Structure formats: structure tokens, C-alpha cells
């Protein structure tokens, strides 16, 4: 590509950041070179200078300067292979499908993305969910051992819209958990800043001390739905922020660790008896702005180990209706 090009932004690219637009159109162009082109005004949007994080709108025109043959050529497509067994498995998780959005009920124990010693993960199976369209995109995450609602975008436009909704806190997520003990008071808001610490336990968060420069505000509404002999409680949580392990750390901070969460609750998180030792934390529902307009509200059934505990303790799902009545969102 040795000439200046004027490229229109398509409807599917509406809302995509400028740097990500370049990454998709010209994957071999380095970020450093793109930043230089932006600084020197060689890249323009509708004739005006733009920054890398600018959001594009359908119909706008991007001026692309000569990039050279190497930068302009498409990147080699990675070879992905999803076994028939995994393809059937991940398709069985779909609880909602439309032209822009997929929603899964993620099982406990399945990592969303790969990492050290994590070879089998949801991200590696997404080709099986392309159906008649594009490979879906992850727009948020759940911990490996947390089950429940996970939203995927089916197009770049939908991904940008959903990401914007999460960033602007236009998403109401409710989690259900079984905790050891009963919260006092039964309903309220946990407002406790969290911080990560380095070393081998980097994926663990702690209550931040005053003056901690790495502290991040974190707030969670909670409401006790039902109790079992004042030893266990079914608690609904509504996170107002989205920090790593936020609900788990906040539950432990009020002395009611989530059942099965040895990382934050230690031995106290395992009540014994017939209660399974698995983490009892489930993303029950989400209410979010739909990329095509209106709202998307989805609920996900409890995983088998939590269903067993709910049955054992005699909990009735209907008791969770209006759990947060009286709490401001």
C-alpha cells in the first residue's frame, strides 16, 4: 500500500476505537508506528486529527497514508482447532442467541481465557460459536470457579457497544452465593477499596490500607435471601464496580466467606457435611443495554453443585425476587 487511501467506516465498525480499527484492517502495522502517524497528522478522521482512543462512527472516512507492502499485508491466520466434543460442549452452554449477542451459562471450573498451565479454556472454543457469522468476542470475564451468565459479542460493533455499557456501568449484574455465617446487617453495601499484592499470590486481592497508591475503589450491594440454622446464608450480591475477586474479597471482609472459597475464607469456607467443597458463587443474571437497542435481561440456572446445596437446605428460588428492594443502585 504505497498511496494515500480514504477508507469509510462500516456499520459493523461503528463505535470501534481507531487503534483497534487499524489493528483489524492492517494487523501488521505496529502500534508504535501508528502512534507516530497519528502524532504527525498523517492519519485523519473526516479530515481532522485524531487520537488512538477515538471512537469511530459509521460513515466517517479515515485517511490512511502509505504504509508499505509489509505493513499493509494481512497477518497469517492462526490455526485453531476445536474438537467435536468441545464444540458440542460449548454450544450446549448457549442460553441466548440473536444477531449481535450470545449469552452462555458458564460452568464452574472452566477458565474464560488461557494462561499458565491452562490449556482448555472458553476462548479456545469460540470458533465453534461462530455459527453463520464471525467468531464471537469476549467482552467481560468470570473467574474460573464462578459459574453463570457470560455475554459474548457476535460483531465488532456489538463488542464496542457492550464494552461501552460495562465501562459506563450500564450493566446490572446479580450474583448468588452460599456463605458461612449470616451478614450483619442482613442488607447493605460493602464499600471497601481493594489492592493486589505481587509475588506468587498476585491474583489475590486485599483490603487496601490508607495511602496505598495501588488501591482501587470497590463497592458491592448485598442482601440476605434465606438462612439455614444461622450457620449458612443465601446472599445475593450486586457489584457496583468490577474489581478482580471483588465479591469473594468483600464477602470475606464482613466475616461471611463464600462456601468453597478457601483462598479468601481459609478452612472456615468449608462447612463440611453434605455441602460440596466447590465455590458457591454464581452469576445469576445480567441486565444490560443491547447493541441493537432496548435492554437484554438474562438469567442462568444454578450449577449442579449449588442446586444440590439449595435442595439440601430447602431454599426456594422464588424468595430471591426483589432482593435489593430498599437499596439504592
Structural summary, described in words:
- The protein has 329 residues and is an alpha+beta fold.
- The chain has 3 domains: 5-72, Roll (Structural Genomics Hypothetical 15.5 Kd Protein In mrcA-pckA Intergenic Region, Chain A), CATH 3.10.290; 84-167, Pseudouridine synthase, CATH 3.30.2350; 172-320, 2-Layer Sandwich (Pseudouridine synthase), CATH 3.30.2350.
- Helices cover 19% and strands 26% of the residues.
- The protein is built from 8 helices and 16 strands.
- Strands 5, 6, 7, 8, 9, 10, 13, 14, 15 and 16 form a 10-stranded mixed sheet that branches.
- The longest helix is centred in the middle third of the chain and has 12 residues, at 156-167.
Topology:
Layout: E1 5-8, H1 18-25, H2 31-39, E2 44-45, E3 48-49, E4 61-64, H3 68-72, H4 84-91, E5 94-97, E6 101-106, E7 137-138, E8 147-153, H5 156-167, E9 171-180, E10 187-191, E11 194-196, E12 205-207, E13 219-228, E14 232-239, H6 246-253, H7 262-265, E15 281-289, E16 295-299, H8 304-313
Parallel strand pairs: 8-15
Antiparallel strand pairs: 1-4, 2-3, 2-4, 5-6, 6-8, 7-8, 9-14, 9-15, 10-13, 11-12, 13-14, 15-16
Shape-level CATH architecture of the largest domain: 2-Layer Sandwich
**Weakly predicted, low-confidence segments:** none
Q: List the domain count as a whole number.
A: 3
Order of helices and strands: EHHEEEHHEEEEHEEEEEEHHEEH
User: Rounded to an integer, what's the Rg over CA atoms?
Assistant: 23 Å
Going by CATH, what is the homologous superfamily of the largest domain? Pseudouridine synthase
Number of H/I helices: 8
Kindly state the number of beta strands.
16
End-to-end distance: 51 Å
Structural class: alpha+beta
Quaternary organization: single chain
CATH class of the largest domain: Alpha Beta
Residues in helix, %: 10-25%
Based on Cα principal axes, name the global outline: elongated
CATH topology of the largest domain: Pseudouridine synthase
- Mean pLDDT across the residues is 90
Biggest beta sheet attributes: 10 strands, mixed
Fraction in beta strands: 25-35%
Amino acid at each position: 500500500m504505497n498511496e494515500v487511501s480514504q477508507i469509510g467506516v462500516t456499520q459493523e465498525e461503528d463505535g470501534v476505537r481507531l487503534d483497534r480499527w487499524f489493528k483489524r484492517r492492517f494487523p501488521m502495522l505496529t502500534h508504535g508506528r501508528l502512534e507516530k502517524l497519528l502524532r504527525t497528522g498523517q492519519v485523519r478522521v473526516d479530515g481532522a486529527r485524531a487520537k488512538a482512543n477515538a471512537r469511530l462512527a459509521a460513515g466517517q472516512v479515515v485517511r490512511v497514508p502509505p504504509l508499505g507492502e509489509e505493513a499493509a499485508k494481512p497477518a497469517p491466520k492462526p490455526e485453531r482447532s476445536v474438537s467435536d466434543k468441545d464444540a458440542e460442549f460449548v454450544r450446549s452452554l448457549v442460553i441466548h442467541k440473536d444477531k449481535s449477542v450470545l449469552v452462555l451459562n458458564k460452568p464452574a471450573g472452566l477458565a474464560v481465557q488461557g494462561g499458565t498451565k491452562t490449556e482448555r479454556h472458553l476462548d479456545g472454543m469460540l470458533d465453534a460459536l461462530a455459527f453463520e457469522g464471525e467468531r464471537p468476542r469476549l467482552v467481560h470475564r468470570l473467574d474460573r470457579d464462578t459459574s453463570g451468565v457470560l455475554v459474548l459479542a457476535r460483531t465488532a460493533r456489538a463488542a464496542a457497544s457492550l464494552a461501552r455499557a460495562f465501562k459506563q456501568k450500564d450493566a446490572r449484574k446479580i450474583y448468588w452465593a452460599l456463605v458461612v455465617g449470616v451478614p450483619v446487617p442482613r442488607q447493605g453495601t460493602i464499600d471497601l477499596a481493594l489492592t493486589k499484592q505481587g509475588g506468587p499470590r498476585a491474583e489475590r486481592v486485599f483490603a487496601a490500607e490508607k495511602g496505598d497508591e495501588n488501591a482501587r475503589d470497590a463497592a458491592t450491594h448485598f442482601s440476605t435471601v434465606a438462612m439455614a440454622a444461622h450457620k449458612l446464608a443465601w446472599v445475593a450480591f450486586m457489584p457496583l464496580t468490577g474489581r478482580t475477586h471483588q465479591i469473594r474479597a468483600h464477602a470475606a471482609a464482613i466475616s461471611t466467606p463464600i462456601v468453597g472459597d478457601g483462598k479468601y475464607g481459609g478452612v472456615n469456607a468449608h462447612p463440611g457435611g453434605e455441602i460440596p467443597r466447590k465455590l458457591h458463587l454464581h452469576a445469576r443474571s445480567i441486565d444490560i443495554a443491547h447493541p441493537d437497542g432496548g435492554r437484554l435481561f438474562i438469567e442462568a440456572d444454578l450449577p449442579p453443585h449449588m442446586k444440590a446445596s439449595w435442595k439440601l437446605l430447602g431454599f426456594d428460588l422464588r424468595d430471591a425476587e426483589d432482593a435489593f428492594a430498599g437499596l439504592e443502585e
